[in-house]
Predict the structure.
Amino acid sequence: MSSRPRRPSKPYRRPQRDPARIVAFEALRAVEERDAYANLVLPPLLAKAKKAGTLDDRDAALATELVYGTLRRQGTYDAILAECVDRPLREVDPPVLDVLALGCHQLLGTRIPRHAAVSSAVELARCVLGDGRAKFVNAVLRKVTAHDLDGWIEQLAPPYDKDAEGHLGLRHAHPRWVVGALWDALGGGRAGIEELLVADNERPRVTLAARPGRSSRDELLQGQGAEPGRYSPQAVRLAEGGEPGAVPAVVEGRAGVQDEGSQLVALALANAPVDGADRRWLDGCAGPGGKAALLGALAAERGAALVAAEIQPHRARLVARALDGNPGPYQVVVADASHPSWPRDSFDRVLLDVPCTGLGALRRRPESRWRRRPEDLDRLATLQRALLRAGLASVRPGGVVGYATCSPHLSETRLVVADVLKGLTDIEVERVDARPLLPGVPDLGDGPDVQLWPHRHGTDAMYLALLRRTR
């Protein structure tokens, strides 16, 4: 009996390491495993790969897009993958899910051709997961290719007229509760909320702040396609892909990376009229130091001293680094501004940029939208109110307190201010109209407080209320 001759087996092909996708995978793993933020873990990974000679500028740009795009649309991609995987996603190993999500973004969120998107994801899986699980990745992503992103959303999203928040949440990759909270704060109809959600999904350009007396906007405008900010006289926006580490004033600490909305908040507090002396300023929640550095420079120009208080020692060290070289007197203290150690009536100006959900900075920290939960609001509410009450006691009569959040959520903004003012018994406070202190900024509403928006102002969604203590 003769047997059919055996075909020679194909020689084993080693997987091809793609440096951009390897870096993107490592960044996603750090975000998943350590609750890290992409804007903190990705730059060192890129720098290490560039130093090793495995990554050029084009690869770095691709890795950046893959990381931020994947994190931004994580909820939408999870809903799509759930339709393409034969078991609950919670039963899929997290590293496998990261590779699948990267593959989803390449297929549905970039212009990479389908074949190249699938094959590059499979090669990545072979490198980081092994050949066996790479076959699973290949099978799942081929199912994903059945539709483009709009097709998947049409298939999976609930109808708008039956579940508006669910529909917009899947279409624009925001949790349902976040859509509802932003919509409540924004008001208006569908067009406004969609403009905001779209803006949340656009990566902002890097904005620098020139620190008065230490650098100038003209200096920062040299090179990298930089242009002036829209509203802040200290702001300069770098061209897309601009590297702040290549700006000498930033390297030397004479300027810093700071969203224009944050600059406007600090400038408004610094320019608010006070009655009497103007010698002692307090930044009560100073970490990581951007606003403290700007306030310190402004205070120095007027002969005032800044106290920068931060409760966490490691963040206090960042504040000290940001203020190093400030031309005027300053002090960095590790202290809890909600239970201050300084006497009452100590300061002429007080800034409280309080801990919050960060829903106003989703452009910069896309993973935040998936980490935050509605119950976080209750935990933060107690702290926010305590900080504002203590800040009002810390400022002297005639002085001004600025209450700020990087969140538009009503429970972190207007409701906090209203509750604290309603409960005051031993001091008197009046509202200060913040709008005239942001000259040239449009669409500031009825006042007296100010809410900035990414889709209207090109800034983070910063909120500011100014309060003058009268007695």
About this structure: The first strand starts at residue 207 and ends at 210. The two ends are 108 Å apart (CA to CA). Residues 293 and 443 are 28 Å apart (CA to CA).
